[in-house]
């Protein structure tokens, strides 16, 4: 039996179950509509032997069918690094004890922000799809990332993130 009874390739979201965090809401402003009342964050996991971990987003999700980072809405008062690591664990089983934070990159629109937390993998792991938001989780060689249909926000950020990663930047 399928782990998730609702298909991630369906164009309709799965039915909501259980309580939602107050941060799980849309915000709108002059620069667009974004998920995460308190902002959002995601993890760009880099394993020198494998590449970067990307999530093929469920078709029903915002910009569904594109490739992006495991991540999501921050909880009220949650630090971006903590939220990104929490979301990456929830969505892809990224073990925070097996990664090292290299740097962060923030897109800030004033009324909403997104923090990319770039981490180096210290101990190899295999991602696990643990919710219906993913079609796939794959390690993509860095040179092949641009060949994918990327989430628009990640596509905009990728050249700058790659340059910082290539430079060996750390905190």
Model description:
- There is one protein chain.
- The protein has helices at 80-92, 152-166; strands at 26-29, 32-35, 40-47, 51-57, 67-68, 71-73, 99-108, 113-121, 134-140.
- It is globular and about 40 Å long.
- The longest helix is centred in the last third of the chain and has 15 residues, at 152-166.
- The protein starts with 25 loop residues before the first strand and ends in a 5-residue tail after the last helix.
- It has one domain (26-166): Nucleoside Triphosphate Pyrophosphohydrolase (Alpha-Beta Complex).
- The strands form 2 sheets. Strands 3, 4, 5, 6, 7, 8 and 9 form a 7-stranded mixed beta sheet that branches. A two-stranded antiparallel sheet has the order 1-2.
- The protein is of the alpha+beta class and 171 residues long.
- β1 (26-29) and β2 (32-35) form a beta hairpin.
- The protein is built from 2 helices and 9 strands, in the order ββββββαβββα.
